[in-house]
Amino acid sequence: MTNETTARRLFEPVRLGALELPNRMVMAPMTRNRATFAGVPLPLMAEYYGQRATAGLIVGEASTPSPVGFTYPEIAGLYDDEQVEGWRAVAAAVKAGGGRLFLQIEHGGRIGHPDNNPGGHLPMAPSPVRLPGGIHTPTGHQEAPVPVEMTEAELKNTVVEFATAARNALRAGADGVEVHSANGYLLNQFLATSVNRRTDRYGGSVENRIRFVVEVVEAVVAEVGAERTGLRISPWNTTNGIDVADKDELFPALLDAVSHLGLAYLHVAYARPEEPLFAVIRRRWAGPLIANPDLGEELPIPADGGLAKGVALLEAGADLIAFGRAFLANPDLVERYRTGAALNPVREDRSLYGGGAEAYTDYPFLDS
């Protein structure tokens, strides 16, 4: 049973960094593979995001800051002028609908393949530890290559790439950026000893393993300001073969290391309010906390789109709730939750990743 009094908080305004949001519903970042192979957002993406502009905040899908950082085919980039122009159209569509947009910056690390990369680059990672389970490519499922271990010079260059991508996001008209340190991608890989086997100052101890993430966040803040910078983490998610075994020690240490910066928000993906660590995170993080309900990765999702779990997160101390697949299938999710209307189900087909308008921009609105 959803606590209706708590649920009404979703429709209250809230300040997030430099922004005043009309509600506390965030559209979570979701890769949909609708950019060009070179990472340029297509016009269809502008329509998709513009349809969902009633969200308090939209966090755009993961975009690579580097030619080496591509994960899967047709994901977006944020490192060249053509990509910036593509995102400019997206930002304009969101603003035309009265919305607000942060762009997520994500480097794939070991999650990548030369066939998915416009330059044919091998993926780079903390250590030469292969992604288990293989990876999707334009020619089918393939074994992931052994990644190249990053040198300290390459780490420094990647920090600069994140900062440059953040500046590019604002050039494109976005309101801010989210640094993606979750779900098994590069920054998350540095946190986990199963992937990070380095013996230098970026591996081993908790202090060393959080160092790269802290350097990236500090560089982004220096470039665009703390009020336009968010950070995403996923303490409980084991997607992409990642598992931070000492999460109860590491994540509080990470938050302590960046809390003085005054970030716009912390975004916890796959959040579990019943876990003691969630309460620790809430106590250690004084700023706005966005929490994304853990609905698992399989379809279908609950008929309420995760509303009940979102309300439980509000009761556990979250300030805003990020909904993913519920927003994917319901461009007017805010109004549907406000009025108690039924939700469109997520279509279970290949159009989740790649394709055209079908199951992307053709989900019906309440008034259609």
From TrEMBL:
<comment type="similarity">
    <text>Belongs to the NADH:flavin oxidoreductase/NADH oxidase family.</text>
</comment>
<dbReference type="GO" id="GO:0010181">
    <property type="term" value="F:FMN binding"/>
</dbReference>
<protein>
    <submittedName>
        <fullName>Alkene reductase</fullName>
    </submittedName>
</protein>
<dbReference type="InterPro" id="IPR001155">
    <property type="entry name" value="OxRdtase_FMN_N"/>
</dbReference>
<dbReference type="GO" id="GO:0016628">
    <property type="term" value="F:oxidoreductase activity, acting on the CH-CH group of donors, NAD or NADP as acceptor"/>
</dbReference>
<dbReference type="Pfam" id="PF00724">
    <property type="entry name" value="Oxidored_FMN"/>
</dbReference>
<dbReference type="InterPro" id="IPR045247">
    <property type="entry name" value="Oye-like"/>
</dbReference>
<dbReference type="InterPro" id="IPR013785">
    <property type="entry name" value="Aldolase_TIM"/>
</dbReference>
<keyword id="KW-0560">Oxidoreductase</keyword>
<dbReference type="GO" id="GO:0005829">
    <property type="term" value="C:cytosol"/>
</dbReference>
<feature type="domain" description="NADH:flavin oxidoreductase/NADH oxidase N-terminal">
    <location>
        <begin position="10"/>
        <end position="343"/>
    </location>
</feature>
